[in-house]
Amino acid sequence: MSIDFEIPAEAKAIRKKVRQWVHEECIPAEKELDTKPLAEVLGPLRAKARARGLWCPWVPKEYGGMGLGPLANALVQMELGESMLGALSMNTQGPDDASMMTILAHGTEYQKEKFLKPLLNGDKRICFSMTEKAAGADATGMQTTAVKDGNENYILNGEKWFSSCASVADMALVMAKTDPNAPRHKQYSTFIVELPNPGYKIKRNVANMAIEGPHDDVIHGGHSEIEIRDLKVPADNLLGGEGNGFAMGQHRLAYGRLRHGMHNVAKAQRALDMAVAHVTKRSTFGTLLADRQAVQFMLADCASELYIGRLMLLHIAYKAEKGLDIRQENSIAKIFHAHMVHKVIDTAIQLHGALGFSQDTPLAKWYTQVRSQRLVDGPDEVHKWRIGKNVIKAFREHGTTASAAGGDLL
Question: Domain Acyl-CoA oxidase/dehydrogenase middle, which positions (predicted)?
Answer without folding.
Answer: 127-213
